[in-house]
């Protein structure tokens, strides 16, 4: 809409990518002349992003594009990357083209040497562009066509005469999947009493003529693959080891260790109690006094320290006292003092392990 004197605004509707650029506004005044202003219009166009695998066949000797990511009709041009970054064995090729309407189309291809190992590997195409609120992430699962990789499963090295319903399985890893399976025995078709159904071979009863090599071949539209297994027929079954043998052995070893631990603990406790009970106890001279002042003595075998102690009797009636004559220094030993009758009952006395006798009711100081 062209501007007017009443409203000099410039309205652009609809906005196209080609509308981007520098816009100038001129105002003629009198007597100051013409005034001019400039502004830059930037147009953002959101792109259309797509990503898809590229079907390739394994076995080539040069790199091929295995995935393609396209950001079409965006402005400014988009930035494309692949994740995880730095994929081993992969390279990236990116091409950017400006369209007639001033938008851009960016194409990025993931290149590698096609092998069965990258089949169904997942990669992400990440598109960053100013018109996008956040990066656009597109996941791609790689598709590589290759002939079958075959493995024969089911032989347990224990096929014996008369064993029933043993099965061999032909496992095929192929893209596209294998559509045909063929079994052979010693390079010849399998015998009539063996049932071959697609990828399975069933033997109802094992016989001696089954000795030899069984081969499975799998075929798809790319090619064929095969695998073999050597079968040995035995006269009798091979004894199988119990699955619980390891658990039993572990239990026995654990039990022995527990017994050793308990035995060691009991031995330690018994030895500790024996040492505690056998501690030295050396009772000193015991003095017994009567009410009339007479004192009786019962002594244990003396040591050098004990021999330095001499009993003395105070003049007062009914008192007993033991005094060391060794002079200053610590007093060694204990004295039991009891005031009572001269004919003291033996039931009130107690024998010690070293042969001495002390009173059960004596007071020791």
UniProtKB/TrEMBL annotation:
It is a single-pass membrane protein. InterPro entries: CD80_C2-set (IPR013162), Ig-like_dom (IPR007110), Ig-like_dom_sf (IPR036179), Ig-like_fold (IPR013783), Ig_sub (IPR003599), Nectin/PVR (IPR052659). Residues 47-141, 148-232 form the Ig-like domain. Residues 300-313 have a biased composition (Polar residues). The keyword Glycoprotein does not apply. One of its GO terms (cellular component) is membrane. Gene3D superfamilies: Immunoglobulins. Pfam families: C2-set_2, Ig_2. Keywords: Disulfide bond, Membrane, Receptor, Transmembrane, Transmembrane helix. The chain crosses the membrane at residues 245-270. Residues 292-365 are annotated as: Disordered. It is found in: Membrane. This is Poliovirus receptor-related protein 2-like protein. It comes from Callorhinchus milii. The lineage of its organism: Eukaryota, Metazoa, Chordata, Craniata, Vertebrata.
């Amino acid at each position: 809409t062209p501007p007017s004197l009443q409203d000099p605004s410039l309205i652009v509707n609809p906005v196209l990518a080609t509308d981007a650029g520098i816009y100038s506004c001129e105002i003629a005044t009198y007597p100051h002349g013409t005034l001019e202003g400039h502004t830059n219009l930037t147009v953002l166009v959101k792109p259309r992003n797509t990503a898809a695998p590229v079907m390739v066949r394994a076995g080539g000797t040069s790199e091929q594009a295995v995935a393609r990511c396209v950001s079409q009709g965006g402005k400014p041009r988009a930035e494309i990357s692949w994740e995880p970054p730095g994929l081993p064995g992969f390279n990236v090729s990116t091409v950017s083209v400006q369209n007639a309407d001033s938008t851009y189309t960016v194409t990025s291809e993931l290149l590698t040497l096609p092998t069965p190992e990258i089949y169904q590997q997942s990669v992400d195409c990440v598109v960053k562009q100013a018109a996008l609120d956040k990066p656009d992430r597109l996941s791609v699962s790689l598709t590589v066509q290759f002939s079958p990789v075959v493995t024969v499963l089911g032989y347990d090295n224990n096929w014996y005469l008369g064993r029933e319903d043993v099965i061999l399985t032909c496992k095929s890893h192929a893209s596209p999947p294998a559509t045909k399976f063929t079994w052979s025995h010693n390079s010849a078709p399998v015998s009539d009493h063996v049932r071959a159904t697609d990828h399975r071979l069933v033997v109802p009863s094992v016989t001696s003529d089954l000795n030899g090599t069984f081969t499975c071949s799998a075929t798809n539209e790319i090619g064929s693959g095969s695998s073999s297994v050597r079968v040995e027929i035995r006269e009798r079954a091979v004894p199988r080891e119990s699955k619980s043998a390891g658990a039993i052995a572990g239990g026995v070893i654990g039990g022995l260790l527990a017994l050793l631990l308990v035995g060691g603990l009991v031995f330690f406790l018994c030895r500790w109690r024996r040492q505690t009970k056998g501690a030295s106890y050396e009772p000193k001279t015991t003095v017994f006094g009567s009410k009339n002042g007479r004192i009786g003595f019962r002594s244990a075998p003396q040591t050098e320290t004990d021999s330095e102690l001499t009993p003395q009797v105070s003049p007062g009636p009914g008192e007993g006292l033991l005094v060391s004559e060794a002079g200053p220094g610590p007093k060694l030993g204990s004295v039991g003092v009891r005031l009572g009758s001269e004919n003291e009952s033996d039931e009130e006395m107690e024998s010690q392990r070293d042969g001495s006798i002390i009173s059960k009711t004596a007071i020791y100081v």
